[in-house]
Amino acid sequence: MDVLGRSFHQLLLFSLISLFCVSGTQFSIPRLGALRRTIRREPQITSAAVSKDFETFFYKQTLDHFNYKPESFTTFPQRYAVNSKYWGGPNSTISPILVYFGAQEALDYDLFRIGFLIDNAPRFKALLVYIEHRFYGKSIPFGSKEEALRNASVRGYFTTAQAIADYAAIILHVKQTFLAKNSPVIVIGGSYGGMLAAWFRLKYPHVALGALASSAPILYFDDLAPQVGYYAIVTKDFKETSESCYETIRKSWDEIDKVARNSDGLSILSMTFKTCEKLNRVSDLKDYLDSFYSEVAQYDHPPNYPVSIVCGGIDGAPKGTDILDRIFAGVAAYMGNRSCYDMNEFNHQTDESYMGWKWQTCSELVMPIGHGNNDSMFPPDPFNLSRFTKKCKKLFGVEPQPHWVTTYYGGHDLKLTLHRFASNIIFSNGMRDPYSSGGVLENISDSVVAVHTVYGSHCLDIMPERKSDPQWLIKQRETEVQIIEGWISKYHVDLLELRDQT
């Protein structure tokens, strides 16, 4: 990295850290992602067999798909991986290409942490393709994230429209390379990637036969979903798990403020929560706990059920333990016994994916999520667009476009509009997932369908199958597979009829 690149990187980090010094949680929306950020704490399930079945490629991708300026034809290497182990071959029109859309992180984890494709590849005799999102992982224009984010004009190419156009170009390239002209394509994504999968099917129906959009909150824009919906479900998850746990958390915020008002309050809080560095602001602790509760609710996966683990720690503290020590017991129960706890665990400003996602949410993906006033275990903190805009302008020099997603992809009167022309989309959700509050939960038509489970969590249906999976999860996945099989069978019949006519 050259001196200018290092200087910009340091300046961007300083700006981010400075903003967080004075900001509450609502400058950062709760994390979107199929995989939880603390996934590294889980035992590795990858194997040599998984890795050797994938071959990695780099596609010469066009920087700008929508203009004809000289600089638009600049290219960058975009990473994708292919697994052809189970593929029925190009002559089988019922053997699909299953394409996973990478989202706001490197592709590496997706290859062995996203299970739906590899688990169902033998059944479908499918070719598997995983594509990395532009500006993440190794798919960076101009070679480095610092170089890519330095120039405001280059950042302008960091959009969802450009991203799904990338996917279209790579899918068509793969079909040509594998002589798979008539092989049907099913695109799959989770969380933000699920939104991209649904939008891709709407924008590129000639490329993808169908889409599985897992935990895709496509309605969390404008005023389509309640702003307090996310945190209302987090609260509901904890309250249903343990009323006493919920009450302890609800009362803890005032207790934190009370301690912080003492002359040595921040030192006391630092010792109570064993922070790796002494707290400089009480908001650092509050933001950490906000993100902590959000993560365990969002990814409340079986068989461990993180919310139960946290509440077990809170409720299981010895009799007479004060509120804040109970809260810490809940943190330690989930995070493990550590020498200290990093208050930036969930929001590392030095994380490249973090900076890229911050740009995306400061430009077009403005999700108005805030804390409510009624029956919430969180202190009131409504989403404030003016405050959000001011901080984004200070950081990136751009004004967020909160209405662009619904303008470009739709959203208002969704059922009225989509049932007229859309088809072959599965919106899957788990109702314990806070982001289900912005998901599609009702069938729109016979082929644009909602599949959800009462006890499911974020992107659970596309996680790897386990022997311990509950029956309701097994049934949800089977329903999704059967729907996709129906799409492919109909496509096969239509293709044969078309051939007969010609």
Name the descriptors.
disordered N terminus; single chain; globular; 10% strand; 502 residues; alpha/beta; 8-stranded mixed sheet; 19 helices
Helical residue percent?
Answer: 40-55%
Shape: globular
Tally of strands:
8
Main beta sheet: strand number and arrangement?
A: 8 strands, mixed
Intertermini distance? 58 Å
Order of strands, widest sheet: 1-2-4-3-5-6-7-8
- Rg, Cα atoms, Å: 23 Å
Which oligomerization state do the chains in this entry correspond to? Answer: single chain
Order of helices and strands: HHEEEHHEHHHEHEHHHHHHHHHHEEH
Name the structural class: alpha/beta
Strand and helix map with partners:
Elements: H1 3-22, H2 48-52, E1 55-62, E2 75-83, E3 97-101, H3 110-113, H4 115-124, E4 127-131, H5 145-150, H6 152-155, H7 160-177, E5 185-190, H8 192-203, E6 210-214, H9 229-241, H10 243-260, H11 265-272, H12 282-298, H13 306-315, H14 323-335, H15 352-363, H16 385-396, H17 404-408, H18 414-421, E7 425-430, E8 448-453, H19 471-501
Parallel strand pairs: 3-4, 3-5, 5-6, 6-7, 7-8
Antiparallel strand pairs: 1-2, 2-4
Summarize the structure.
This protein is α/β, with parallel strands linked by helices and 502 residues long. It is built from 19 helices and 8 strands. The chain has an 8-stranded mixed beta sheet, sandwiched between helices.
Structure description:
The chain has 502 residues and is α/β, with parallel strands linked by helices. The protein has 19 helices and eight strands. An eight-stranded mixed sheet has the order 1-2-4-3-5-6-7-8, sandwiched between helices. The longest helix is centred in the C-terminal third of the chain and has 31 residues, at 471-501. It starts with a helix and ends with a helix.
